[in-house]
Amino acid sequence: MDLSSWNHRHGDGERKVLTLNVLLLGSKQSGRSSVGNALIGGQEFQTGVAGVSKTTECHLIRRTFPRYFRRQGAESDLMLRVIDTTQLLPHPQSVHKLCSEGVHVVLLVLRADLPHLNTNLEQHVEVNTHTYTLCCMCMDFFDCVYFLCVQTLFGPEWHRHTLLVLTHADHLKKMGLQPSVYLTQMPDSLRALAEKVVGGVSFLDNSCDWPSNRGRPLREQLLRLSARNHHTALAVRTDVSLGL
Fold first, then answer.
1. Cβ atoms within 10 Å of 153's Cβ, excluding its own
2. Which of 34, 65, 101, 125 could form a disulfide with 78 if both were Cys (CB 3.0 to 4.6 A apart)?
3. What are the beta bridge partners of residue 65?
4. 101-141 tens-digit pLDDT
């Protein structure tokens, strides 16, 4: 979908503004809201205690970063429109309502510290009136469901606009496990998913008290991914049905 993401800001001087729609996808307690807070550099997205999810509906937060980068020698602002979802498979109409112009970057959110939460899961995913029964072990569940969800929402080009975020990476540090080593030890299905998405993998340290600091590397990564796609957006398909 060809989308003009650039506009001009007036006031303290005319500057271009790049607006990016970012969609967060992940299961309950995956850390979606924490990723959203890191991206915007604040605490607007509500985070819950262990086992309790605070997100009850799709939620949009905007944040503008003045003079964030230079383009063609001129300073430009970056505006992020971050959409947090309620569950792994959001309603297409809900996503479209918040970003009718499309989604520039999709963040798939998983926890790096609790792989046992992803075991022995069975889900029924209804797509275009066909029901798929997914009996998945360990990370295979996420591989299958993420693929079906994102591909159904955005079509075959979804992986070009997607990156994988692994939260609670601070627990890996406590175990003395480097992210590069962790990637080599992931189950084959999750490693295949990490290799499939063009944006690559990002680790989020949840122990950092300054969301803006921990979010800067992630913002840079999604900005590079969007630039690689010439800041075009994926259209949200509203003629499909997703359900759990």
1. 25
2. 65
3. 78
4. 999 999 999 888 765 444 333 343 334 434 333 333 334 45
